[in-house]
Amino acid sequence: MEEKRNKAAGIGGLISAAVLPFIIGLILALVIGWWAFPLVLFKEVPQPVAFKHSPHSEVMECADCHFLREDGSFSGIPTTAECASCHESAQGESRAEAEYIEKYVNGEQEAPWLVHQKQPDNAFFSHAAHSLESCQQMGCHADYEKAEDLCITCHPSTADLDKPVPYLENRLTGYSNSTMKMWECERCHANPNHLDMTNANNACYTCHK
Amino acid sequence: MASVSKEFKVKWGMVIDVDKCTGCGACMVACQAENNIAPVTDASDKRRSLNWLLVYELSNGKAYPEHEVAYLPRPCQQCGSYPCASVCPVVATDKNEEGGIVSQVPSRCIGCRYCMAACPYHARYFNWFDPVWPSGMDKIITPDVSVRPRGVVEKCSFCHHRFMQAKDRARVAGKDVYDLEDGEYITACTETCPNGAIAFGDLLNEKHRVYHLSRSKYAFRLLERLGTEPQVYYLSKREWVRRQGDNYLQNEPTPVKG
Amino acid sequence: MDIKRRAFIAMAGLSAGVSTGIVLSPLPWKLLDDLAIWTQNWSWIPTNPKGENTYTQSTSKICPSGCGVRVRLLNGRPLRALSNHEHPLGGGISALAAAEPQLMHSPARVRKPRLRGADGKFKDISWAEAEALLLAKIREAGSDVLCLSGDENGSSVAVLSSFLHHLGSRAMYLMPSEAQCASLAWQATCSVPTESQPGYDLESSDFVLAIGANLLESWGTFIRNRRIFAQKRQADENSSFGFVYAGPVQNQSAAVADSWLPLNPAAETVLALGLANLLVTRYGRSVNAPGFDAVADNLSAFTPDLVRELAGVQPRALEELAEKLASASKPLVLCGSEFNQGGGLAPSLAGLLLNLLLRAPITAVPLHTAALPGALSRNEVYKNDFLRDLAKAGNKLTAKLTLFYNANPAYGLPGAKTVAKAIAEAPYKVAITPFMDETAMLCDLVLPDAFGLEKLDDIESPHGCGQVFYGLSRPLQKPLGESRHGLNVLLGLGIELGLGIGLPTFYEDVLKSKAAAMNLNWRELHNGVTFERPFLRLDDVSGLDLTRYESLLFGPARGVQAKNMLTLAPLVKNALGTAQTGIPPFSLKIVRDDELAGQDSFVALCGETARHLGLAAGSAVKVASAQEAVFAKVRIYEGIAPGSVGIYLGFGHTALDEFSRGKGANAFELMIPAEEAGSGLMVWNKTGVTITKA
Q1: What's the confidence (pLDDT) of residue C621?
Q2: Listed residue (C221, C91, C87) closest to C528, CA to CA
Q3: C57 and C134 within one domain
Q4: pTM of the model as a whole
Q5: Is C147 found in the same domain as C74?
Q6: pLDDT of the residue at C191
Q7: Are residues C371 and C515 in the same domain?
Q8: Residue of B34, B36, B172, B176 to mutate for A, most A C-beta atoms under 10 A
Q9: In terms of residue numbers, what domain contains C36?
Q10: Contact partners of B by the rule of 3+ C-beta pairs under 8 A?
Q11: Which fold, B12-245?
């Protein structure tokens, strides 16, 4: 009996002695894994210019700067020359604009914008294939009226923002934390029944170069 | 050997007229420039240098003055029944896209080189070294094809990026991407050849020149009897050239196309 | 240390908790994934640029064919040279022109003006210093200035000769070429129009016989030639277009010709005259021009038997060929040296004679010279033979100042070592060059020239074209480093020197006024539009006169060949670049391992010759001419006549970059220029060599 009780107390003691440290360890690790690790992994990198989308979207369409070229490629971020077509001289009184004109327009160089959705060299993303026109032609997303409705499925809407979205760079990979990964592409591409259409081919060469 | 050939609605193919090729090498220059293949200072070491497209010199084997010479450019044959992709342990190479081009994704490749051993055409090359462009020359790297580091296998892709670009052009113009017109998508070598020796298009589309050329009685494919079903055809009116397309026994007649 | 049981259990519990927590957090999975991504983006692997693609047109100044290019620009910067099917001289694109954007960034480019110091080493100097120095040297030299240019198709000839004229010198030279021989032969044949060159209307011909002339690789406007060839062969599967190549080597043209007629090296003239003889005697052809009777008399000596003896062509083959020519409705004969130089006047004259007998589609292409005071046309400059004058001066360059404009004579002239020695010993020499080539290495002052798509320049009717052609090579990129347009530098110096009268400030002005004189729209030209204008058929040319043929053609026709010697048969590959550019980096992969192995280039022999010499494939040999010896390996190639030694031009550079330097032997070193009887022009297409085991 004595032995038994001791044993039981031993096991119970073992558990009671181990459980608390286990829970402490678990919580600690979860905190490190979920909270501290991302803090260490990502660093915030400022954009070269404190660009505000909101004043622009008041007077312009998105497509004035971000458009599909005739050859089917996407313009992405406008070049300095394109920006300079308005910002040859200051349009407002902001310091950011003055600095931009001084450094990039007058200095005739491209601003090293950080692209949240920058894809690796081996990926070929066709904006043309994912454009509203293409989608409507194929019968999917017929409910979308404006291109912007479609754009924001991948790019967070920035039109009304007063400051750049913080750019969090992964210290290991160099990509932003919002860069789409392949599994995200595959949500549609690996699913041939995606919205009842089959053109979302998942062949390697559909996206890789 | 897998004997079932993978079929597609669109089959991009090449027809190379050996009787028009002078072996000038312009196609190889265009290929390197287009596909970001780095130059090497000692390219005479053929075991270590890398080409997607290689021009071979063929000889009829006879002595002067009966000698004849021919040149045969060899891109990836984009086999219908692909010996390479079937041995890839990591699916870095596959043939699954509409158009039937054998894909090669270098970032996925682990460099085991099984595919190189499997390819009967020596169309695959291994990056023994990191690519190095002399200082300043890296400015002419194109946006089209990702640069491959050492340790991976690469090969001709039929300038697949041009297919992507052609599709994008078609999309913007509101056209069907699977019914491109003849010439809307051609490879860099095809575009370059001053002799028009290379034709490129959809082998299954009657409106494309290659459809008819590939059905010529002078058409042949390399090592046809292996059953690899290449999407690259060659033309020659010279029988000795056609005979070199496969390993015929001395007394074996060259098969004649119907 | 004493660990209590409870503490151990607590530790185990903690570890288990940490492990579980870590596994349940994204840390390990994210880290693994990111590590994998990290290995895909090594910092030393270049990345793809991004941006907007645009396309524009230009004409290649660096490819001898003057072929058209469609330039692909990325964000306004030239990235690729593509083929241009709208261009009169375009079609596909040559291996050299396709490498143009890459060559613009070649490590061999000169980036700053360089001055040779007292210790023989170069140091970089500023443009101000360089210009001041050159100015002083020009003043010092007075009229004793010589200029050798490597650009025969552009207005640089006019600018340079006008510059010399203002200094009081007429010593303007061009690097020797096939164009020079063809042009001088043309001038010896007809007198009207005065400033013109022969044009070859390949488009309308239905049978082409190329004797020597490597029509599809290096002769004249070869990219245009190839486009026409492609079109004619494309027409239908059993095209009626005929093409025969006759030459010592089964080269690129022979590979796709209907047939190859093997020929002894430098026997082009003999074959052409043998054919002419048959056309006159058997087919009753004649030319309605003074001097033809004497020509016909002389022709009668070129019987099929003589042709067999001198050219190695069997009488039956000769007769068949004459039959083909006579029965074709628009035959055309292209006759010249198989390596585009050094053949002298005779092959060109013999070819012209054949074409006259055949009433071939030959045209007269008038030349336009920029209206600058004292400017010479290229036809006039062709009369100055650099090699002849060098030989006359005892292989010395005596001018107080020698100016090399885009020319590399120290590598690319026959007897290269003799030429290099003359340059090294010349009193003062200046190179205006984009590349640090062999000649620049010997100069006292090297001025970095803009190159390719950095440089505004013009191309007028390159040799071989059928009509008047005019196009611009357009500046699409800022010159590399501190390089400048060499001609603008000279024009600037001209003003400093007070030569200003009639000399414009900028080369662009020269081209603008030339375009205006040709009634061309400058704005269109500047957008890459090129012009082609038809001109006179030979039938309409007046002043045809064959009286000089007796001395110019029949004197040197038979040639002299040393007995018991092998003859060099130089081979040309456009991909190997020009003397100026060296081997473009891309091209090294085109070179097969039986053409270059490590540092050894190959000489090609047919099996019979090799057996006779006791050599096998891969044997190391010494190839010696009376001038010089080089080392090479043996390649057995049955597409070469017995007794001939095939050797590629383009190897054996000692300067430029690591893609050109130290690769094989320079065939130019073996060649010995000798005077052609009659014309007095230097020829070097009959180099006798011996081959011994090394």
Answers
A1: 97
A2: C87
A3: no
A4: 0.93
A5: no
A6: 75
A7: yes
A8: B172
A9: 24-103
A10: A, C
A11: Alpha-Beta Plaits (3.30.70)
